[in-house]
Amino acid sequence: MIETTREVSSRGLYVDFTGTEETVITRSAGKTTVTYRSKATVVQWRLPLRGEESIPPGTYRYPFQFQIPAHALPSYAGRHASVKYILSARLDVPLWLDTVWTTEVYVFYDRPSVRTFAQPVRFRSGGQGPEVYVELDGDRFFARELIGCRITLSRTENARIRRVYTRLLGGEWAKADGQQEPSRFRSPRMSHRATAGPIHITATSSRWASTSLGDSTSLRRPRS
């Protein structure tokens, strides 16, 4: 919307949408500190709403719509990496300061698409002695979502098992100017007492955000 009390010369009104990935890694050695940076553009486009012409006094509305690209990464802010989307509107005024409005737009995965491409997780520990078989509801979840988990222990007849526990690990991997910086975050353990013989354990674990960033950052996303 444009609102003016006098006639204003204008070279155009347009909307910009920009998405950027950025990694910042700082290394310190003694009194020396070096910061490495990498930046890449995820998406960038401009939508013209009004051409070059004077704007008479009054109030003018310019409805518009746009679609987030299918390949867009979700918004993210981590220890060393971030993905951010900015929407801005600019009225280009000659020989004067442009009128600019800016806001951040938060992008998330579409829930149906994540459910569509989610795959069940099944794996065994293998090797000699007791065997651990783990089953998960899927391999894609949202923050604060509950994960259904089932653990089966076998070949435990001659083994002394004191405890079985699960732990969820989340990580960020950032790279900038050839420098790599992994970060790992841990959730509290969920433990269960165990006895001899085949054991079936069903647990529900709380999910918290975990993602990975590469050079100059790339986030894991559902397969299409």
In DSSP terms (H or I, runs of 4 or more residues), the helix count works out at: 1
Domain count, please report it. 2
What is the CATH architecture term of the largest domain? Sandwich
Q: Name the beta content range.
A: over 45%
Helix content: under 10%
- Rg calc: 26 Å
Biggest sheet statistics: 5 strands, antiparallel
* Top CATH class of the largest domain: Mainly Beta
Mean pLDDT value: 78
Quote the distance from N terminus to C terminus: 38 Å
Topology pattern, helix = H, strand = E:
EEEEEEEHEEEEEEEE
Comma- or semicolon-separated keywords:
single chain; 224 residues; mainly beta; Immunoglobulin-like; five-stranded antiparallel β-sheet; 3% helix; 50% strand
Structure description:
This protein has one helix at 111-117; strands at 2-4, 12-29, 32-50, 58-60, 76-77, 81-92, 99-105, 121-124, 131-136, 146-154, 164-166, 169-176, 179-186, 190-192, 199-206. The protein has 224 residues and is mostly beta strands. The protein has two domains: 7-105, Sandwich (Immunoglobulin-like); 111-206, Immunoglobulin-like (Sandwich). The longest helix has 7 residues, at 111-117. Mean pLDDT is 78; it is low at 194-199 and 203-224.
